[in-house]
Design a protein that fits this description.
The chain has 214 residues and is mainly α. The chain contains 6 helices and no strands.
Length: 214
């Protein structure tokens, strides 16, 4: 059983290494285009609601705590609390996705969806900085939706995994002797949370700070 647990953990770490490389490509694209179009990225960042981003950051930090507690109670064999904290983690993940849906809807209403016919920057309300084009700002939103959309997809998958864990926990499958699925799923959840910790300042804060001229 211990050998199976170690093999599962190694498999998850290999998978997470692959995910890091995948997200790393998106982060590299962000850095390259931000260096090339700094003022355009600042303008795009200023249209993101950092309050919602900060709220979602707190939500995911708390969800990491509840996931860690779920793993702990699986290890010690307290089924009731394990289920409680798994469900709480699912709820927090759902709250995060709900806030992202609100943000996406705001971008739709403001015509900031970076596809043909759906992107229209309102220069009267928000004049672009000198030597900045609408196409450059559109690139920021391409990267924004690519990174946050992929992250949201990982969150949806994570919630599905948690639902599977709750089902088996309810049936008493996990015990101090066998709880590897909960531990491995916890690694995945923490990885998704950490990715957001990087996305929040890069998308919501750094561009705004640059735009203020500091």
């Amino acid at each position: 059983m211990e050998q199976q647990r170690e093999a599962g953990s190694i498999g998850m770490w290999v998978f997470l290494a692959q995910e890091i490389m995948f997200f790393g490509g998106l982060f590299m694209a962000y850095l390259l285009y931000r260096f090339k179009y700094p003022m355009a990225f600042a303008a795009g960042s200023n249209h993101l609601d950092w309050h919602l981003g900060a709220f979602n950051t707190v939500v995911l930090i708390v969800s990491s705590l509840t996931m860690a507690l779920a793993v702990y109670y699986a290890q010690v064999g307290v089924r009731k609390l394990q289920i409680v904290f798994l469900v709480l983690t699912m709820i927090l993940g759902t709250v995060f996705l709900g806030v992202k849906a609100v943000e996406y809807h705001e971008k739709y209403v403001d015509h900031l969806i970076p596809v043909a016919g759906m992107f229209d920057w309102d220069e009267k309300a928000s004049p672009l900085p000198p030597n900045t084009t609408e196409q450059q700002v559109q690139m920021f939103y391409w990267i924004y939706f690519a990174m946050t959309g992929l992250h949201a997809l990982h969150m949806i998958i994570g919630i599905g995994i948690l639902a599977w864990l709750v089902y088996h926990a309810w049936r008493g499958r996990y015990s101090p002797e066998y709880h590897a699925p909960v531990e491995i799923s916890g690694l995945y959840w923490h990885f998704v949370d950490i990715v957001w910790i990087f996305l929040f300042p890069l998308l919501y804060l750094l561009g705004r700070h640059f735009g203020e001229g500091h």
